[in-house]
Amino acid sequence: MSRNIVRAEGRVTGAGREAHFGHRAMTVWFTGLSGSGKSTLAFALEEALLQRGVATYVLDGDNIRFGLNRDLGFSPEDRTENIRRIGEVCRLFTDAGLVVLTAFISPYVADRDQVRAIHPDSAFVEVYVDTPLDVCESRDPKGLYVKARAGEIPDFSGISAPYEPPPVPEITVDTSQPLDACVAQLLAALPLTPDR
């Protein structure tokens, strides 16, 4: 990093943005295996939040790799850099007053902890989408597990690469429940108002 840079400070504060939008800003970080339901939950929660007047946006793992992170592969080093970049984007979105929802496998505890560390206190909510591997494989919406088992996809989380579940997530969601029940659980648990 260059030493010749200075952080520019605007005149609108984070508290001012929260007052304007009428809700707390935060990053809601969905983590879990491929096929666990992260994207499905994030997009359903986004819709429910927007219906309640909450300024929100989803950052999805595949979508980000079409643009911002298209230069990254799936090696452990690239996965760490992928999450570092996304964490910085989330911090900016949170500073802008939004509730940013992420759907990334993000297989390493240390990487998720680094993202948490750059957020203000209580502005990072880790959601563990706790779906057993056999259920994820049975869903296999993208056909990735079949390819991974055949050796066609190296470094695949849960098969040929590790996935480290969060030791103490703020929320754990069981996606064997109906989607509406999962969204209701999330809405009840998220600290969207300043007094929660």
Structure description:
With 196 residues, the chain is α/β, with parallel strands linked by helices. Helices cover 41% and strands 13% of the residues. It has eight helices and five strands, in the order H-E-H-E-H-H-E-H-E-H-H-E-H. It has a five-stranded parallel sheet. The longest helix has 20 residues, at 76-95.
Descriptors for this entry?
196 residues, alpha/beta, five-stranded parallel β-sheet, 8 helices, 13% strand, globular
- Structure annotation, total helices: 8
- What's the β-strand tally? 5
Question: What is the SS-derived class?
Answer: alpha/beta
Shape: globular
Q: What sequence of helices (H) and strands (E) makes up the elements?
A: HEHEHHEHEHHEH
Main sheet attributes: strand count, strand direction, barrel closure: 5 strands, parallel
Estimate the helix proportion, in percent: 40-55%
- Gap between N and C termini: 37 Å
Mean pLDDT: 89
Radius of gyration: 17 Å
With strands numbered from the N-terminus, the spatial order across the biggest sheet is 2-3-1-4-5
Show unreliable segments.
none
Percent of residues in β-strands: 5-15%
Topology:
Blueprint: H1 14-21, E1 26-31, H2 38-51, E2 56-60, H3 61-65, H4 76-95, E3 99-103, H5 109-117, E4 124-129, H6 133-139, H7 144-149, E5 171-173, H8 179-189
Parallel strand pairs: 1-3, 1-4, 2-3, 4-5
Write a short abstract of this structure.
With 196 residues, the chain is an alpha/beta fold.
